[in-house]
């Protein structure tokens, strides 16, 4: 077997294991086949036994025989095997399993000759062979080959296994096994023996009775199974135990809750009249025959009068009714339940559809009523928009709000930092300059920050700007003539156009598209009123309006840096997008802005179709129009330039950076600005916003630069460095823009400063390049730090801080720490003692530590002269710290009687003189586990009485 | 001159009806009741001190035996019934309310090793060295009032001497231990089941009061064995370093039990997890001979060879109370009363002693107000238990010199061992001397 195993499997490389296998086989033979004798006749094996490995010394058999006398670990694997075998067989033979295993291992057709089954198989194979001889040649040959092979193997096996000696204890079988069937063969023909043969055959068909596993193994298996089972059983108590342990109050003896729920019906059914009154009433009821039992009885009597069929029919009907009711109820319940989102959606749509149909009908039947209804709906819609019901619902709205908040905050800060009046004017200049070139500061500001400051980003920005400028140039080329003709008008009245933008800004709408459209429409109406209405904005739009071919319809902004210009040329719609600063937020919103713009343009188209006739625009929103006109009228009537200037300053607010330009954009009151009314100021903000090149064309005078720089110098001394840098860059940009101003519409116009108070500082400097510090910057820096004695200031500050944390010496109370009274000479100087405040309790110290007020000796910068290390933490948190540890007294002096009683309740309450029984289930329920779970899942502790 | 006087109107305080609330004139303004924390602390401190003053735990001694008392048991139905067996074979039934024995008899020749009450409390069972198990009636009074002769109502004969006995909590089954554990049905003369695992003698056996089919035993081969009588098999064996003398199940927690060990400690085990003890209860300075859970499952009492009785909380490593007497000898057996208010100890000095479970608790019935006051003080003590003085005073116990000395000696020994181990660890390869949890130290192995 071993050899074959080697050949066949080829995996068992260890001889040792082969031997082991052999031995096992032999053991089996010895045990089951009754061929023990071979062992004795084969001295070789004995010699083998001598060389048993240490591991093998206490083998399976020994283990079975001697139980767990040996080491535990040694036999664990074998034991497991046995155990598994035992458990799997469920009382079946041990050896069967082993055989099965053998088969599984791959000794397929090669059966052990000592294996009974194998023997039989062979035999039957032989018989089959004879019977099917004529059937098929091929099969026959195959069979022959197989048989031959088997025989060979058999021979090998036989040569290996010693031949049984014939003697008084054994009969030689010549390698064949004696089976019961072979013995029975001669008897089969005999009629008298038929029953015996049959019985024996039956017996033969059965397998051998299972050899029971060793007691030690069975017992262990029993123990293991039993332990697991018991473990599970006791674990059912776990939730109750847990609950019991965690209960706040437990009262012994425990009162376990009853297994069933108390319902009204259960109370009624178990009700028995006890008090005299109850009994009296009960007796009266029963006397009247109105009690349950008598009612039932009378009903039964009634039923008896009827025939069986009738009763059946009645019952049937009742049952039917009941079932109908039941089903109806179920259905109703189900329908009630379905209220999903989808359901709502569907129902809503259905309603809408219905509504539309109704409207249609209404329109046909009663146009007046329909009109009314439409108006009502429109009013509702308008109301909704006015009240900004959905202000905070969209992403856009939220973003806009955030931006606005930021702007306002900035403004507030600036207002705080605004000091002198004289500076204010400078500021105005700055504001103007910024407003004129709205994108400038934005760009420069972005340039400063992070990635935007890098060279390649700037290059790309430059590229973008150029592209944008090209686009705009193309645009402008379309209506250059008008521009030129209008130029003089712009010069005078550009400020008026700006005013509208201010108005827009004041409206604070989240989207500007709609408004811009309206504005345009309004603007379209205005030209005949006064030439002044033509403004910067219409520099581009007015032309198209005149010829009716091209028109900039809308400008949509996603954030400050992204904007979409839509140009409508006849039926064609072109969308231009410009990302002036390559701005961070803008990029994200570009897509959405585009979409928005498209949508808007479509709507505008529609509106235009409705309201526009023959290329001439009719009025848009009447109210808006009126407002606008009014404003303009007053302006013109007054002719006040300051208003115009104000309008100008507020020009194009959404294009300005949220931080600065927008914040300052609203600052008006510059009187002189109106006079100047430079074309630069009057430029159409829409276009200027979209196109960088046109921005460049705008004028930012050297004067303005000078103002800026002056203002900076003053501010810088007090402001932080970062802010200053921003400003400086802004300055640089402005300078550049000023320089870059080309031959665009009024681009070469130079602004003159109205008040020349700071003229000396306003030398016309050549504008700095976009990258690299300019001379201007350097000069500014020097100016900023010229008079600041920073070091001294720092030292002073440090000294102050250190002093404030040092413990102070205070004069001691007279008589404190020494003798007092009459005749005692007072010391010249009162003793000085370190200030020790009785207030400085633990809590106070903790509080100080919490907000980072570190005492002198603990300061980290105690010995560092060049630095102040602030260890202050969030001092706002300090107000939430408690001064005193909260202490809820338990006593009756501080609590109400009920509260006191509640608070002093004992955790474990034991009733005196009551036997406390072990925890147990109240009822004998079918499933203990369920009952326990049920009890444990009750909200109340099971232990409360 | 204006003179202010206190004036009280009687009618303000008089209730019209009995059901009316008692009017209390109390101004709840916190400004009028300052220093609440200080005052409550003082109250707690005083309460702790008063506890010491009132700590008089010893209630009564039950005397009558003429030899050391080896075992005793309480009835599961009546609070006052306690039976005890002594080394001279005498069996006595006591009435705790009077302190007298109802009857006594020489039940066995040699030691009475175990005694237990039946579930209904009407019978009690005893076993002894004479290989006999006997059932006794509770009442041996005739209707006239005259005493009958105390005769066993039933006698079962075993093959070996018995060392312990316990009654099933629901059915009429008896478990005895000796060489093996036997389960007896009183209707049969032969045991129903014989449960054995190993050849050593089993010294104690206890039925689980919650899961009635489970029982556990301790044997002299240092093992603790679990059994299940449904399958009549043993379940698991746990071997400790030293012998466990007695075992007691927690009556409120089906799977937890505590064993009294020879190594001066008690161990709480979860029968589902034998790899580690749940808790090690230390304080005794000699072998612990018996342990009994309070019926509340919140604490247990243990008696030791060191002549002290200690009360432990079920999850505390140290005892909360220690009782000792000048003349009290080795404690053989201890009991918690059925209402968890009393503790009994049976000792070598022929006496059974009755102690209060809470030393300073009043035995008298209390007025509601008194009751509330005590509850309030208890809560205060609990609140301030960690403050130094309260802690010190509440923990202080007077101990006999011998025990004090032994405790100190134990401490020294422990420190020395620890030091030595640390030294060994220090000079060994890292990880060669592992740290072993105290709860696992005593566990030798768990056998399946």
Structural class of chain B: alpha+beta
Placed side by side, the strands forming the largest sheet of chain A appear as 2-3-4
Q: What integer is the average pLDDT of chain B?
A: 92
| Shape designation of chain A | extended
GO cellular component, one term (chain A): small-subunit processome
Keywords (chain A): Nucleus, Phosphoprotein
Protein name (chain A): U3 small nucleolar RNA-associated protein 14
Pfam family, one (chain A): Utp14
Notes on the structure:
Chain A has 945 residues and is mainly alpha-helical. Among the domains of chain A are: 314-365; 367-388 and 397-404, no CATH class. Chain A is built from 42 helices and seven strands. A three-stranded antiparallel sheet of chain A has the order 2-3-4. A two-stranded parallel ribbon of chain A has the order 1-7. A two-stranded antiparallel ribbon of chain A has the order 5-6. In chain A, a hairpin with a 5-residue loop joins strand 2 and strand 3. In chain A, helix 9 packs antiparallel against helix 10 (137-160), helix 23 (439-448) crosses helix 37 and helix 25 crosses helix 27 (536-547). The N terminus and C terminus of chain A are likely disordered. With 448 residues, chain B is of the alpha+beta class. In chain B, helix 2 (36-54) crosses helix 3 and helix 2 runs parallel beside helix 4. At the A-B interface, helix 13, helix 14 and helix 41 of A face helix 2, strand 17 and helix 3 of B.
